[in-house]
Design a protein that fits this description.
The protein is an alpha/beta fold and 280 residues long. The protein is built from 7 helices and 14 strands. Helices cover 19% and strands 29% of the residues.
Amino acid sequence: MATATELSIPQLLDPMPCVVRAVNRETHDTITLEVEPAEPYHFEPGQITMVYKHGVGEIPISISSDPDRHDRISQTVRGVGAVSKAIIASHPGDVLGIRGPFGVGWPIDQAEGGDVAIIGGGIGLAPLRSIVYRVLNRRDRFGAVVILVGARTPKDIVFAEELREWGSRFDIDVNVTVDTADRGWHGPVGVVTNMIPRAPWDSSKVTAFVCGPEVMMRFTARALREDDVPMDKVYVTMERNMQCGVGLCGHCQWGSHFVCREGPVFRYDTVAELFRIRGV
């Protein structure tokens, strides 16, 4: 996969024009944009792009699309600031600029021959969605595939329709839980870690990919350790710490690490200590 030092100058500096082809609403403040790049686009699951809205600015956004499809890029965006709100206000036919891809992706190839655990909290499922596509595209290379998702409420579940489609398959196991249920919810209630002890994987053969708020990732890693999953088989992403994408601005420094250069994906045992320190 390409790192910032391996990308060409245009990829680093010049946004590639991408036409918005579809805008899919996930929740009240989150949408998934389907954009068509000006040329075939290649990335690895877990990498990010810098998305530019003309006249407003740019922000790092994880890629949530199928990595084996090169004519479309999916960007799942939550509107929390001026730039992200401008991006989610896009309409089909609008043009956005994209730089990248940047960063170190999920080491899916290292999971081949074993089981796969994909564990997401809230919009943290977005950087994990491309793993699901990659694994399903090469399903015969993996053992059990388990997807565990947690959300605050049923209305906060992203990719809800796809989760139902994946859950209807016989070759993967999908479980979704919410912190607070409504009258129409018939699934589990509670935090996502509650589902780990009952997950149908082989703890000695599973590779876990985790994304969500830092506290969720820390407690998930603890639950996986209690389930006898080796910590060198657990990976997390710190993609929301990325800023410029190429490690020049220094805003992504996390302890002794620079997320843009060394991440956003890290093996958990190499950064576990940082999860115990507030404000790093």
